[in-house]
């Protein structure tokens, strides 16, 4: 949550040189700038503002005299102590700036478009006019030349096996044919200059080249390694721009892409694939991107844009935007607008290779600018509860504000955002303590928008809620409103065009007074301006800020800070000198800032962050508060970009990553991942140095560990929250113990017990501090404490934590300046005194409500007053129940105490208690638990008494069915576990749960009992497994197999029975007979041939098959006759009913016995439970049956008349309803049900007939097979032809439309639904 703030500007205007600048390079060691033009090179010193060298290239013939020459690259070479210059005509020149000697080290006949040196200056790359790349060493020895356009992808070509190909994917509305369309390549952008672009990775191991492909006309990015081997080619990207910049850290390559409605900065991986993007805040075809530049530490991306001509006579501008990323969101931190016409047009810009946040710009009118940026956190600086702990973040023309007092919202989200008409340059909060929530915003058009908190007459459209709010939410937060926008009036408007950031370090010191700093153009001086609001005759939102007065200061001001309480303004100049600006005095004087010794303060190194704070004297004079106050001094704190921390001119630490001043506290984070908190009121320079030294051992309050890379965002005033931000951007809230204790002490001093208690309970602070902080005050305000806490549980919690220890002397020692009042009764013990005092207060307030707390106060005393507690409990609870509860604690002293306070006769309980006391401990507790009917606990204690008590334990287990609980008490390999398991199995057998019983027996090793249980339930596999473990003889196993086979045959499981007989009884003949009985013809044949018994085929198999064929024929004849009879009768019944309906002229509902059943027809005809597993030829039969019929015995569908009947009477009534007796009221429904049963039973024969037909065919019984097949087909055809006659749809059902809507009723909806269910279309 940091912003980029301008530290200083270095400006060199009107450099005296011929021609126009074309490119430039930096000489970092000398601090000079090399600028190339169409006439040659010049070297300028921007600090001294003088031209140091001028080297013409025209006289030597390297550039033409007509001014048409062009320098495409300039590079300062440290090893050669010279400068390398490349011209568009193809010359590579070495220029010695000391001797002015020129040497042409190489020439390219086709010309040079790009010269790019590797970061280590070991290699140089030239792009020629013949679309080739030439790589040379630093001594200009050629290594290799390759074509810039390559057909191959590169060494990192992807290997695919066809998974996830486009033609196999879902393509939505485009259709599958889109997968086979040829990809259309868009040509390069209209404003593209078609020149190659080269960028190196930070370590110099790879470089990327962006070129326009001659075949497609679109740009491609190719990546090469240091050995000049092609690594990869980018995927086709429509609208790819020429700008290219490889992130120095090596992860991404930045470029631009024009999309249909926007323009994006896109990122490529080294393998050529896209990896993320962000959108530029411009419309399509509004701007073009001239360049992208990463700074040295990869944290800031500069985007150089230029307006495109859209309208005639429109003012065109060029922009330099600085973008940063945090939490995967790209923020626009700065936007510098320059004019596109005249001298202020940007020619070139670059980041400083040594100073990461220094940006160099060269304009067309020989104007050089150097901007130094630094990170800052813009937060409100109030120290009272009215300050909302605001933190503002710049994001283009939006200001994202998070109110940390209300809620902690992680970026990039925010509580609310301010919408500005132009990109934001700087944010400042008001320095007045009571107005610290007000903020002012300076934008790129040099307008200051002032937002103030308070009641607004209308909704401000420039303030939008962020992560809070929404439909249905009520916001308790008061958002600021736009008070006014002020336009800053410059004396010279040209300054604003040449340097868009003329004013910086804006500070809001008073209601209508702003301080701003500008730098002199011709000397190393700075000017402090007073900006005041000009009086306005109207109340319009637009105002004017004029420069009322100015003060010139020697040196370049790089920081300005204001103390919120003292209103002191401290200035820091580039040399480290600290000045005090007396802005409130009439003379507006500037004087040196002096330390307590009267020596002017000067930072040894320039600091990027400065703050003012009141710190105690250098030496501690005493513990008296007045003495300390007299020796306090306002000091300036500074932090360099190298993590060196200064107080005045003393270096306190060298590993500080961030700091913040809150009230009298100084908080710092260090490289060792710790957060320190020091009280400045009691500190001196020496104590701070000692506390921050690596060998210092903290007492635990001033130091706490934090996550790696944490930085301080803000501290919530009058609260305990410290907000930290991690390197990735996410936030973390910590509660530093030092801040927590100070805030708790403040709350206790103000008698705010509830706030202090809640904080201590949440953060696990010992509650004794509530009393120990000031015993006298606490005891005098106990009643206030109880009323504020207002919770019995919380008061009891306070009682439970009480102890005689004084935590202010052991755990939480107070500050040296605090005074703690002693207790009014020092001879009485602390816990007893608190308990007695609070009990008296609770009895006075509401003894009934605080009854439990009153009892706790008696128990918590040094000598517990248990008799009083029991007496009070006896008044509230039944004595017998209280006696049982006390007995359940196994504490006989407590039991006696309860019994004595009750009305029990000692003759009743004393013998019982004496008997218990004589018992062994575990048996004693068993007896008590059994007496109290706590049987689970009882067997637990009895199991510990020894094996001699196990029979008693087993009897109790059987008596109370505690088998599951008992099995947990003994190890599985013990005899007790086996005995309990056997008893459990026998219990399951009594409950007719034979299979679980068998499993229990088998688990404990009682195999004989398990075999009996498995035999009883027919689990033949388990029975045979157990038999194998019993090691039965062959005869015994055969007998067991015959027994199992008999039970299985009774259950009609012929295949299982045959398996048992064959494998265990060795009786395959009987197994074959069982298989024939069960119609398992194929399995029977398998056994016949396995044992080579073809005689059985003649004696048993064929007769069985023929007998089965006869049975099927008889069954089909019977089904056909029954079906025809029922169908004929159904048609007669329907005809009779139609005649009766015609006679009945009134269309009323039927009455009598049938009226109760009239609504059942649709339900019966619409239910369906059938599975629909039918052959294709019988699909219509299946469809009709499954659509119209299902289970017909559902008692709940017949209304209220049947709901109260018994199950027996209900079944009897059901049979009466569906009676086939002629003339019965529901004969037609009974006939329909009977016909459905016939059809379903016939359908079930399909598989059986299929198997027997195969056997008939196999044994050449062709006549019988044809006879059976024809009979079955005739039956099925008869039923299929009859379906339309039997199940007809009435016109009302076929045209049923759901009656729904606001005018429908429950009855109408249900009737419509029933009609819809019965109108299911018949499948063809």
From TrEMBL:
Residue ranges occupied by any ELP1 N-terminal second beta-propeller domain in the UniProt entry: 393-713
ELP1 TPR domain location: 923-1086
Domain ELP1 alpha-solenoid: 737-878
Residues covered by the ELP1 first N-terminal beta-propeller domain: 1-353
Domain ELP1 three-helical bundle residue range list: 1095-1184, 1201-1286
Keyword Membrane (UniProt): no
Ranges for region Disordered: 1201-1221
Metabolic or biological pathway: tRNA modification; 5-methoxycarbonylmethyl-2-thiouridine-tRNA biosynthesis
Swiss-Prot/TrEMBL GO biological process terms: tRNA wobble base 5-methoxycarbonylmethyl-2-thiouridinylation
Basic residues bias: start-end ranges: 1205-1219
Gene Ontology terms for molecular function: tRNA binding
Record Pfam families: A-sol_ELP1, Beta-prop_ELP1_1st, Beta-prop_ELP1_2nd, HB_ELP1, TPR_ELP1
Key words, A-Z: Cytoplasm, Nucleus, Phosphoprotein, tRNA processing
Location relative to the cell: Cytoplasm; Nucleus
Family: Belongs to the ELP1/IKA1 family.
Complexes and interactors: Homodimer; dimerization promotes ELP1 stability and elongator complex formation. Component of the elongator complex which consists of ELP1, ELP2, ELP3, ELP4, ELP5 and ELP6. Interacts preferentially with MAP3K14/NIK followed by IKK-alpha and IKK-beta.
Function (record text): Component of the elongator complex which is required for multiple tRNA modifications, including mcm5U (5-methoxycarbonylmethyl uridine), mcm5s2U (5-methoxycarbonylmethyl-2-thiouridine), and ncm5U (5-carbamoylmethyl uridine). The elongator complex catalyzes formation of carboxymethyluridine in the wobble base at position 34 in tRNAs.
Protein name: Elongator complex protein 1
Species name: Camelus dromedarius (Dromedary)
